[in-house]
Amino acid sequence: MGREVSESCVDSLLTEMVSTYSNRFYANKPDLAAHSIEAIGYQVGLQLSERYTMDRSRFGDHLEAIKFICKDFWSELFKKQIDNLKTNHRGTFVLQDTRFRWLSRMSIEPSENGDVPHNNPEAVTENKSTQVTRMHLNFPCGIIRGALSNLGIPCAVSADITNLPACSFVVRIKV
Fold first, then answer.
1. Which end of the chain has fewer CB atoms within 10 angstroms, the N or the C?
2. Which residues form the signal peptide (predicted)?
3. Does residue 48 carry a pLDDT above 50?
4. b/e map of 52-82 (b: 16 or more CB within 10 Å)?
5. Cα dihedral angle (12, 70, 168, 60), rounded to 10 degrees?
6. What pLDDT score was predicted for residue 110?
7. pLDDT of residue 96
């Protein structure tokens, strides 16, 4: 039986980490806060990948490693597999989770005051709740990047929010 951590503890830790880095350490530097949170996730991903691959043979190619992340690694973290995996067969993979657990209790408001500007709807800036949600996604992006880095795959990982709690993680392999 492996060690487990209460889901509510992880939720609280993630919320406090985002709040502390965004509002205290780097209140006026959201990019630096995002980078710091992603770096913590990277370290977690390195260590988890080491633990979960201890008894496995090396992966033959990038696709095998990505499939491991989607099935085994994701199952260990979230008790479910990634819902969909897409690739362009040129080093870009999209991992879709239709019910990402760490976003299940979050919501995004259409705009700060509830209105969309009539003259230019595309000029709507991200409201505070969207910024906080995106900040929460830096940690799992770091986890994925750290896990793949440990498997010998240098990459960049970003996240897209589709319709909460659904989100997609875009993995771009560096060559």
1. N
2. none
3. yes
4. bbeeeeebeebeebbbbbbeebbeebbeebb
5. 130
6. 58
7. 97
Structure letter (DSSP) for residue 103: G
Range 3-12, long-range pairs (CB < 8 A, 24+ positions): 7/101, 10/102, 11/102, 11/105
How far, in Å, CA of 49 to CA of 58, rounded?
Answer: 12
For residue range 104-147, list pLDDT tens digits in order.
Answer: 877 766 554 444 444 444 434 567 778 888 899 999 999 999 99
List the structure tokens of 4.
């487990």
Instruction: Name the pTM for this structure.
Output: 0.86
Residue 63 contacts residue 148 (beta carbons within 8 Å): no
Q: Which two tokens stand for residue 78?
A: 């979230």
Q: Does domain 7-106+126-173 have CATH number 3.30.1360.30?
A: no
